[in-house]
Amino acid sequence: MAPVPISSIKVGHIDDVQELRKAKPSTIPERFVRDRTERPAQVATLSQSSDIPIIDFSKLSRGNKEISHMEILQLTAACEEWGFFQVINHGVDLNLLESIEKTAMDFFMLPLEEKQKYPMAPGTVQGYGQAFVFSDDQKLDWCNMFALGIEPQYIRDPKLWPKRPASFSETVEVYSKEVRKLCQNLLEYIAISLGLKGDVFENLFGVAVQAIRMNYYPPCSRPDLVLGMSPHSDGSALTVLQQGKGSSVGLQIFKDKKWVPVQPIHNALVINIGDSIEVLTNGKYKSVEHRAVTHNEKDRLSIVTFYAPSYDVEIGPMRELVDENNPCKYRRFNHGEYSKHYVTNKLQGKKTLDFAKTQSNISN
């Protein structure tokens, strides 16, 4: 059977990578082929996965004072030195983790015409397709996305909530409530790790913004030429990532000027610091550039929750974290303005955060 012409496979103006995979093209379309400087170099798999910090949430929340203090110190080091950690014993029901994975995969396996009923409009980040695409010559990620606003209610677009699979809405609602509680609890311990009152972030955030995004990365015959997702930091306060069981290792973080793969731990969730926490902590805890790579045989599913301050909140460095030795690195700004800036620019490492920096710190 002759390969399907690449030009005939589109989601609006954007190529759909699942349909490309089915077509078995003889070459990777130029739209996906990265410039040489952007291509994923071969990264040796870390044998010592303990290099990525692991936080035992049960020790934070239920341990005695001594155990809790030791885990707080681990959390401090994870946030200061990595900006990423995996959390175990997190309290989110393991059956729920399985349910959201199955629900997400069932959605991505629907026929293209069904998924196209929920299109991601250009310049937005809700619906099905690819976000952060603003020109016809921009390189595309080897990924299909489906994203929804969760909280507060007014950010939801009911037209984008799928009718299939039948359990989709209920599963996303229950899962999102559980992950929201985890974010609130983690921020309490992050505040304590900074020497602040545990409720400081909850009081500052107002009704926190929460969104969910499901990412599906089909296998790619030339993973050395493409990226699953372009390098970026997250505009959130915290990001919670669930890596699908059996998925290929795809997440990489940029540390010490090299890309480090994050080995999934069974039933763990990956947490990373977002731009908002970097600003609020005056750079003590930094958001970290990360990306996704693909595999030539295995697919990959990830489910990402973004948790951030209310859009009407003004944020800037907390005064407790500014002094002569650590002068103010960021200006005060409306978080909604930053969110709009973030979603209307393509992913370019940490460049978006220049929006928040004082003039003298923009090159840093």
UniProtKB/TrEMBL annotation:
Record's signal peptide: none
Keyword Chloroplast: no
The keyword Metal-binding is annotated on this UniProt entry: yes
Keyword tags: Iron, Metal-binding, Oxidoreductase, Vitamin C
PROSITE patterns (UniProt xref): FE2OG_OXY
Pfam families with a match to the protein in the record: 2OG-FeII_Oxy, DIOX_N
Start and end residues of each Fe2OG dioxygenase domain: 207-309
InterPro entries to which the protein is assigned, alphabetical: DIOX_N (IPR026992), IPNS-like_FE2OG_OXY (IPR044861), IPNS-like_sf (IPR027443), Oxoglu/Fe-dep_dioxygenase_dom (IPR005123), Plant_2OG-oxidoreductases (IPR050295)
GO MF term (any one): L-ascorbic acid binding
SUPFAM superfamilies in UniProt: Clavaminate synthase-like (SSF51197)
Domain of life: Eukaryota
Family annotation (PANTHER family): OXOGLUTARATE/IRON-DEPENDENT DIOXYGENASE (PTHR47991)
Family note: Belongs to the iron/ascorbate-dependent oxidoreductase family.
Stated name of the protein: 2-oxoglutarate (2OG) and Fe(II)-dependent oxygenase superfamily protein
Lineage: Eukaryota, Viridiplantae, Streptophyta, Embryophyta, Tracheophyta
